[in-house]
Design brief:
Layout (H helix, E strand, L loop, with lengths): L1 H17 L3 H17 L7 H10 L6 H12 L4 H23 L3 H10 L2 H6 L1 H13 L8 H15 L11 H8 L4 H18 L1 H15 L4 H7 L6 H23 L5 H16 L12 H6 L2 H10 L14 H33 L6
Helix pairs in contact: 1-2, 2-5, 2-6, 5-8, 6-17, 8-9, 10-15, 11-14, 11-15, 13-14, 14-15, 15-17
């Protein structure tokens, strides 16, 4: 029943999009995303969230606890609490998408492919990502007020998930990279990837080994994919995904009009990708570091929706139609690698099987 309902909504959104009614199409896709996420009643992380919500022990960050503990004491169920959190997140996302984009439907089409399913599972990271989508456009206007607004929103996000702290320096990264050309920035990213991965890889391993011996274990989920530590295939795939995202942003900068809002957005996003690349070597220690890069992917979608040049149109945002096709393929491959491959039964299927309205 849920699958049929989802297909019908997608078909209606496509019809509205083909008739240039992009706002209605985006609302339909938003309703679909909210329906599948908010009313999901079981997934791979659901049990852990439910246990901690009922325990009232305050095991998560302070702002989550500030909301969750009183909600439980007042008799609110975790289902209702999660619905309210999800509603807030999608309201924030849609506010930003509607405010900043020309074709908001483009954002939702791409987002539903990836990383939507992961956001259903990782609720606190979803909050961080939604607030990042809302706050990042502030950085297009580089004044002190906007920088402080971005920092404030990220501090609020960190109250739900500590990974948000890593984005706070983005408010100032442009001060160091602004005088460097886009091409040199991209070349710098490539150098960072190769230097960290190959030249100082052994030192990173030694550092991680010290941490493992004293404080914990290397994340087995990464090891199972690559089976070779820092040089494993699974680890390198994360590098490749991040690098591909930066390349597409570079193409967008190269082919977009310099006076447009989207040009400044993509230029700011490229500096963010260069900064985040510094943390990728630590994915082998804990896959949480992968979220730093993944949370930037919806920002690429927002930039595309913001531009008057679309993936498939007379004026291609990436330069030509082939690059547009490759970009969609890139999103599909990430969906397969990060979600479908190995997580079909624990992430994808529960979206449809474990829903309050599944009959």
């Amino acid at each position: 029943m849920i699958v049929i309902f989802s297909i019908i909504l997608v078909l209606f959104s496509i019809i509205f999009s083909t008739h240039r009614n992009y706002k209605k199409a985006s609302v339909i896709l938003l309703v679909l995303a909210f329906f599948l996420s908010a009313f999901n009643t079981d997934n791979i992380d659901y049990g852990a969230y439910l246990y901690r919500f009922n325990s009232e022990e305050g095991e998560h960050e302070w702002l989550w606890n500030l909301l969750a503990i009183p909600a439980h004491k007042m008799g609110m169920s975790f289902v209702v609490f999660r619905i309210l959190i999800t509603f807030f997140c999608f309201w924030v996302i849609h506010w930003s998408v509607k405010r900043n984009s020309i074709r908001p439907d483009t954002f939702y089409y791409l987002y539903l492919i990836f990383p939507f399913a992961l956001d259903v599972v990782q609720t606190r990271n979803f909050i961080v990502m939604s607030l990042l989508i809302a706050a990042f456009p502030f950085l297009m206007v580089r004044n002190l007020k906007n920088r402080l607004c971005f920092i404030l929103v990220m501090i609020i996000a960190a109250g739900f998930q500590s990974v948000a702290y890593i984005y706070i320096p983005l408010a100032f990264v442009d001060l160091f990279l602004d005088k460097i050309s886009v091409k040199k920035q991209l070349c710098g990213l490539v150098v960072i990837l190769f230097v960290l991965n190959y030249l100082v890889g052994s030192y990173v391993n030694q550092f991680l080994g010290f941490i493992v011996n004293n404080y914990g274990n290397i994340d087995t989920r990464i090891g199972n994919i690559g089976n070779a530590g820092l040089s494993g295939i699974g680890y390198l795939m994360y590098w490749l995904f991040h690098a591909c995202g930066a390349i597409y942003v570079y193409w967008a900068i190269k082919h977009d009009d310099r006076m447009t809002k989207s040009y400044m957005f993509f230029k700011t996003l490229l500096t963010a990708q260069i900064y985040i690349s510094l943390f990728l070597p630590f994915i082998v220690f804990d896959s949480t570091f992968e979220r730093f890069s993944r949370n930037l992917i919806p920002l690429i979608f927002l930039g595309i929706a913001m531009s008057s040049k679309k993936i498939f149109s007379k004026n291609y945002i990436f330069g030509n139609k082939l690059k547009g096709v490759l970009f969609v393929g890139y999103i599909l491959v990430m969906c397969w690698m990060d979600i479908i491959n190995g997580y079909m039964d624990t992430i994808v299927m529960p979206l449809f099987d474990n829903n309050l309205f599944n009959i």
